[in-house]
């Protein structure tokens, strides 16, 4: 068997763990903290022209003031679909229509809503941890296959340690990001 078949692609594993971290950052950006942000609309998809489309591909998203997001929808026929998608998104925002402009006033967060958002943030972080652990499992499976193909025990141990180190590092980043997001949410 060729020597390269026994190598474990640690860069690929790290890239996939970084991808889980990137997805977590996107999900965290969608959690509102009482301040307006165009990023909070990123996860919302609208059924437009027969396919699910992000809001920022249907109109211009602006933040004219700290507690207001506006969407200037380019196609008049899409305004009601964009509005419905926002209402159904679970963001807890009540869109107001003004022609083709949808205004999203961001209400002040109460204590109960802040606690709820910290729980949602914790769920997002747990999803990221699970994704990272799945990448770790894939790496360990690659090591087992390489073992069956004749990889030396020292190499197996070295790769297993490296995969575990990547996992520990990624999980620590998730925990740190969660802690920062929860502090941001609870800050009045």
From TrEMBL:
It is found in: Cytoplasm. It comes from the Bacteria. Its main location: cytoplasm. Keywords: Cytoplasm, Protein biosynthesis. Gene3D superfamilies: 3.30.1360.40, Ribosome-recycling factor (1.10.132.20). Belongs to the RRF family. This is Ribosome-recycling factor. It comes from Ruixingdingia sedimenti. The lineage of its organism: Bacteria, Pseudomonadati, Pseudomonadota, Alphaproteobacteria, Rhodobacterales. The gene is frr.
